[in-house]
Amino acid sequence: MAPKTKFTKQDIVVAAFDIAKTDGIESITIRKVAERLGSSIAPIYVNFNDVQELLQQVVERALQVARGMIMEEQSGQPFRDIGMASLRFAKEYPVLYRDLMMKDNPHMKNTPEQLGEVIGLMRQDPELAEFSDQELQSILLNMQVFQTGLCVMVANDLFTKNVDDEQMMNMMDEAAEAFIRAAHARKLERN
Question: Distance between CA 70 and CA 63 in Å, rounded?
């Protein structure tokens, strides 16, 4: 009879995620994860073929955390919820945010499915209902550029004065309103 598995795949991913939160994704090694678990490397190789497969699972876990943060916001404005959750992720996981958003990361390529998921959330916002998918993509890209800059400032503690969550959300709201007004104006010009 084979010995019982001491660590589940989930246990291993959680240990690797904990390393990524403090030391970064690039610092994850099979040996470090084994040390974190108080184990040999064998249980990790039972569950993962190599470190790249484990890293992909760590990125998936980070995306699950981010999605969970979006769902927790519940302001009734999904577009706003995405922005607030992004700021929160940058603040709570600055090392991970920098690794995922500021470095060339083969595990973090945007897919059409991910874009469709975000567009679907945006479509739930009554203020955005009249826009086509292409127009929503344009608004999203503009907002992503602004939001990424703001989140980079948060993750790297670059504000010259203390800026609280409410002030950051006001900045996000003002930018979103400006991008939406501009999209409305473009729509009127075309018609």
Answer: 11
